[in-house]
Amino acid sequence: MATSTIPTVTIQPRSRTGSRESRRLREQGQLPVVIYGHGEEPVHGSVDYRTFTDLLHDGARLIEAEAAGKGGSCLVKDVQWDYLGTTILHVDLNRVDLTESVTVTVELALKGEAPGLKEPGTYLEHPLTEIDVTCRADSIPDHIEVDVSKLDVGGMIYASELTMPPGVELASDGELLIAHVATVTVTEEEDEEAEAAAEGEPEVIGRGEGEEEGGEEE
User: How far is Cα 17 from Cα 23, in angstroms, rounded to an integer?
Assistant: First the structure.
């Protein structure tokens, strides 16, 4: 399902750059951004932090940026996080024409119930949560569905097997593993440890003569 409405974001221009200025903006509830691309000069600005992060959490990839009275469609190209991965430090926006082809990263959404999970000791492994696709800028899907309803034990789904929406092509490696119904394996060492535990705890040596509960006799 492609993005139906392009959100509009107001960019406040800024003349100063650098880490100190970026830190000051974030302390004021603003997020530093740079708009570039299409042969035009980069525009340094800032946006309301909460507004923009809410858009990102909602899966927005394309925005309409209004900077100094001049609007333009922009792709969210790069998001820089802090080392904890909890706070956004900076965002790069790339000017785009809505009809041009772009490559973006979109989320994967699991759909259905895998029959193989009814077997004891099985679990669904899905190592990837996102994948790259190529499409028109105005047709970026919100997500790509991964139908696991036919996965039996040992069954696998690769990127090349995903069903893409009309006009959307896979850009990631088709050999990437997307989902797999695996079986929990127990190693020989773990088996031996389990057997040893099942035999019970070692017998507790009784107290010697002259010893009382709580310590040795002096």
Answer: 10
Bridge-partner residues for 13, per DSSP?
Answer: 45
Summarize pLDDT for 157-210 with one digit per residue, the tens: 999 999 999 999 999 999 999 999 999 876 555 555 555 555 555 555 555 555
CATH code of 8-96, in short, is 2.40.240.10
φ and ψ of 51, to 5 deg: -60, -45
CATH architecture assigned to 104-198: Beta Complex (2.170)
CA distances from 163 to 2, 60, 79, 103 (A): 14, 21, 28, 17
pTM over 0.85: no
Distances (CA, A) of 179 to 1, 149, 151, 215: 21, 11, 9, 59
